[in-house]
Amino acid sequence: MRISISSKIITSLFLLLISTQLIIAGGNPVRSKNGMVVTASPLASDIGAKILSQGGNAIDAAVAVGFALAVTYPIAGNIGGGGFMVIHLADGTNTTLDFRETAPLAAFEKMYLDSSGNYAPENSQLGWKSAGVPGTVHGLITALNKYGSMQLKEVIQPAIDLAENGFILTYDIANSINAYYDDFMKYESSKKIFTNNGKKFLEGDLFIQKDLANTLKLIRDKGIDGFYKKEIAEKFVAESQKNRGIFTLKDFEDYKTIEREPIIGSYRGYKIVSMAPPSSGGICLVQALNVLENFNFTKDEWGSSRYYHLLVETLKRVYADRSFHLGDPDFYPVPVGFLTSKKYGSNIANLITDKALPSNRISATNLKYHESEETTHYSVADKYGNAVSTTYTINSAFGNRIIVEGLGFLLNNEMDDFSSKPGAPNQFGLIGSAANSIQPKKRMLSSMTPTIVLKDDKPFMVIGSPGGSTIITQVLQTIQNVIDFGMNLYDAIAVPRIHHQWLPDEINYENHGLSEDVKRNMTERGHIIGSIKSLGRMEGILIDIKKNVFYGTSDPRGYGKATGY
Ligand code: GLY
Fold first, then answer.
1. Distance, C-alpha 169 to centroid of its chain
2. Which atom of ligand 1 is nearest to the CA of 471?
3. Ligand 1, atom 2: nearest CA belongs to which residue?
């Protein structure tokens, strides 16, 4: 994490603990007949499944889960952040809701540069100025109003009850909170909630969030206006002003969820439905699949140096394009059709040889993306034929660690997903990252890749992951693990993954993910082997329409649950 040196160390230790877990494949997914909810939090999954069992549809369950995770999975679940929802409806409609945060009206391009013009990351990651206008509440209620079948009061109540009456902290949740103890102690409002009267929490403690319960009740009773026009916005803006933030009531009044056409692609006969910009996820996923479709893989080739070579060479080109071309489409003309065309995919495939092409020979700017790896994904499918794939985030783990006093929820630090210092023209005259420069009301580029794979136009996989810039490669590999390598859902999610994002020019890999042989072969081809890293936490569903079975798997790297109904 980039919040402070101490938290960097704690986070590294925390991630190391996760990354050294032995991920054992060969397991079975959870099965059910009427629907499935898979989230990073067992309590939230159970709430979603209960909504399905009460006759609710996948959208009702997804909205209930979105509010529940804000209570039970505070590391990333939220009402103070934003995200994306990809929806497939039983009538065949595919659509998406963009409830990404926006830059406040007072934001400006150079707001995170110091007096010498250098990018000062702490400014975009810490404090009130690191937050964008929250979109989650708007997005969830819009989804419910448009595509749900239940009342807001019905789907939000389970979250209110858990916040009001508390829930017992598991080892994992207590640990995740305690990992950021030093940061929480810095803010009185955060100390009040995320420490036990100044002490660390213990497994088994009851975790009550009264302020959050009251905020959720206001949302229940007053809907979108309760958050964006009335009490909550007013308190939020007052707190911002007290803390030298830049939010105004107009930021909240102007906030809108945007319904966008999904990115649609195909891979070996399956249809891919994923998120459009301002997420890079859908375009990059489809672009990569379009390249990889030009190569055949046998089922036994998973983990081989040939597969990883082709995957890495594909990813380098995809991430270079991401850097040049992607940003908020309402502010920048993103060449969606070109990047996602089969022709461009096969052109790239034709350029791939047996040897690695160094990243510095692929058109590039010098900019690196600084994306947080904390976010959360959840997948829902119902018996009616609807499916919902949602990824939402407050960016870093626990956002910028600041609880809004009196409102009980964490502020995001999503402004860090903008390119704070857009590059000068490169040798080809391309302006790297201007696409993602800061402008008032603009949405920062994301890598979140909530995706639904259709077979014969019916939901086949519902999938997504946290992991910042690694999300795209994790979703890509999980889809390939099923379609190319014939794995069941559990194995497809559990087996180790790798990651390359063009810059830095190195392959990250998970524990046990690259054998010595494969490393040697990859090095001979010219690849640079980087470090071991935990890569993503998938929450996925696979549906066998013929047998009418829903399979669910929560990534064994995390501590979530697949709850069937
Ligand atoms: N904040 C991580 C992402 O949006 O990709």
1. 24
2. 5
3. 468
